[in-house]
Amino acid sequence: MKNPMKKLIKIVIGSLGATAAAAIAAAGYLTYPGTPSSASSLVFKGYVRLPSNKVLSVLDYLTVSDDTLFVTGESSGDVYRVQHIKKNSLPTAADVTKWAGEGPAAHGVVIDPSTHLAFVTRSEANTVDTFDPANMTGIKRIPVANDPDAIFYDDLDKLLYVASGDSHLATLIDPSSRTTVATIALGGAPEYAAFDASSRLLYQNLHDTSTVAAVDIAKRAVMQAWPLQGCEAPTGMAIDEVHRRLFIGCNVNDVLAIFDLNEHRVVASVRIGKAPDSVAFDPELHRIYTTGKYGVLVVIQQDEPDRYKVLDTVHLHFGAHTLTVDLATHALYVGYAGLFVDPRVAVFSPRAQPLLSRSSPPPAM
Question: What is the pTM of this model?
Answer without folding.
Answer: 0.90
